[in-house]
Specification:
22 strands, 7-stranded parallel β-sheet, 33 helices, binds adenosine-5'-diphosphate, binds magnesium ion, alpha/beta
Length: 885
Amino acid sequence: MTRGGGAPEALALALSPLLQPLRLLSRAGLDRVAVLREIEPLVQRVVEQARPYAGDLEAGLDRLQETARGFDSAPEAGRRTAIAALVRELSGLLEVPAEIAALGRDESTATPKPTSNTTPTSNTTPTSNTTSNTTPTSTRTSTSTSSRASPSRPPARRAAIAAAAQKAGLTPDPLLTPVDQLRGVGPAIRDKLRGKGLETVQDLLLNLPRRYEDRRKRRTVAEAPLGERSVIAGSVAWIDEVRARRGRRLEVRLRDDEGGYLMLLWFHYRPSLVQRLRTGARIVVSGEVRAGWRGGGKTMSHPDVEPLEAGGGGALPFDPASDDSFGRVVPVYTELEGVPARTYRRIARRAVDEYARHLADVLPRGVLERRELWPLAEAVREAHFPDRSAEVAAAAQRPAGEPHRRMAFEELFMVQLGLALRRRGVKVEPGIAFRATEEAIERIVKSLPWPLTRAQRRSVGAIAQDMRKPEPMNRLLQGDVGSGKTAVALCAALLAVEDGYQAALMAPTEILAEQHTRSLRRLLLHRRDVHVELVTGSLGARERAHAERLMRGGAAHIVVGTHALAEEDTDFHKLGLAVIDEQHRFGVMTRARLMKKGARPDVLVMTATPIPRTLALTLYGDLDVSVLDELPPGRTPIATRVYRDAQRDRAYDVVRRELKAGRQAYVVLPLVEESEKLADLKAATKERDRLAADVFPDVPIGLVHGRQSAQERNDAMDRFLRGEDRILVATTVIEVGVDVPNATVMLVEHAERFGLSQLHQLRGRVGRGAAKSHCLLLTGTSGAEWGPAARERLKVMEETTDGFRIAEVDLELRGPGEFLGTRQSGMPDFAVAELTRDQAILQEAREEAFALVQSDPDLRKPENAALRDAFQNRWRGRLSLARVG
Ligand code: ADP
Ligand code: MG
């Protein structure tokens, strides 16, 4: 439901390179169609790049690609029709300018023409001997698959268990039946299935279709509307392999029962296909019907073909009960190399028919009833072969409706159950009840250099309330860059310190930890009694020992550090509060380890990555949430502009102007791979030297990067903070947390290489004072390397500074895993659920899971026994979850 405006826009953008040749043509006139060059590769390339943004429109992209097949070698008439088709397909995907759209209508004049040359093109070679030079594919199987079987260990184990159980005469779980026990699955196919981790019937049942195709209606050629998928039956009138400039092509004319002709086209195919399509063969085909190909009438490219039984069971393919590829809404699975779609469908059908009934519901009956969920067996059956839900599947063409809801619900429910149990695990044992009096809060807030914003006040209030309770606090503080999270964390820390406890602040990077230390010390300038200590991995041995002594002895009141804080040998005197910054970079385990450093300390998690709600509920669903939705007063929005490399001087002018006004500037370089850090360092050093020599010779320029010692880096930061260095050249180590209000301009090199959230974080380094700030995004020298996705990202950066909007676009562009940026983020991999669209299901699943844990905190009730088992089995191995309890 939440498809933001971003996606269609992105798709249009991605496809826009196609408009250029069309515009040319619309100006020059369609008669000049012969001058177009390299259209096919252009379309292929652009479409491939556009795929990630296709959403529901994937089929449109397929068709678009199809229209350009063979274009470059086609004669003029064919080109005309192809252009018309191309324009029409394109119009379905984006807003096409009127003059271009006109090209699509011209087709009406082009179609009648072809009738004059309905005879096959004459440059053909009647073949069947040309086909034999390709190696038969069936002989390749056993060698390649045995090596592939290893990555799929869990199913292999299941199959082994099943086999052993069978040998021992035990009744095995029918769902663990190895696939080759299904009729029609021999060793060759078994190996191929196994190569994809499909070992047991259960694996088959849980390998759900990606999309659906409506093949219920059978049409004659005359009835089949252009631009729509149709199912058409007939006999092969004529077959020919055509040698084209690039490779061959198979052309087949199908004659339907009313004498209408349909041209079937294949641009890549196996020899076996040619054998199946002998003249006179009765077949059914399914595919999209398009306007003529090279003068033919209606055309279908790469259709699915099914032989019609000669005589006897002629009705068979249209009996939905007995056929799985025609006469019904047909599932389309992710392609398995070496297993034709039809074959796989038949296998899936057997698995569903014979075994789906063994899928037991683990969700408690109450939940199933309250939420009106289908039994799992029924949902899985329908997800594969929609029958009751055929209309919905046909309309959506992808997993939707009740079957999808049932399975997504279970998946999301299991995750929420894990969160509910984790939350309860935290809350159930007593922690520290701080005093955190109103009076103490007032005192602390008054000691800050400015009044808190309303949002900050609200958060401090909620935190203090949590801290007063005997159960441990488990709260998330979410706020955009610059919203003032540090001050809130400090207030909480001081409340702990007032009661004689220590507070820890853990940051994901050293530079950020150093920055936090600096900011805290600055804010605590008048509180000589509060000591802030820094502990990081790159501290010298002596310094580290000293810092740890202070920490252990309790003289360090607030300890700032990296993950080093959570390491085995780090000890606190009396840890009362743990603040974790940018938690998603650490993962749940680090949080748990840090908590063990004290007697169940309160935990405050902070994030500057505005996380869309669905994601937050999944990732932080066990936390209470405070949001800083307000920036400190007096900020002026940052002006962001993209510059091409050729406009570099204009970007430098902006920097120069700011420098002249007494401001400071960042120049940010992309951080390359870990393994290339040395090269990266060289690049940063070189860039600093270049700027100093050629561009800004009259100002001191500093440098920070990940390879410096803490001391060097600290010195560089300090020089910049004090204004001694006017420009700071930096790799992305400054991404988070650096706070120099006098810096008003940031120039980002190779901005196209950065992720959207990362750019947003970077940009947050400027605009921290009252003066107007600028963010200059320089794009790489070679325009070729940055595709539509990068362009979209940069455009969003220009358009908005709203972190939530940026996060949402980013999430849509990259998906949850990438969005969070790390494997260890604790984000489960969903097989069925799609967070961006299944929000309502998530909400329901969450309510039920939390209610369940409320009523049966240890899942001890008999009616929850199945659930408990399933949970511990991690939803049949598909989800990675925390342990129970
Ligand atoms: P965040 O960590 O959320 O990105 P910071 O805590 O670094 O933000 O705060 C951003 C800047 O705003 C800092 O320079 C900080 O001193 C300043 N600041 C924070 N709170 C206030 C406030 N209530 N009024 C004015 N300035 C503030
Ligand atoms: Mg901060």
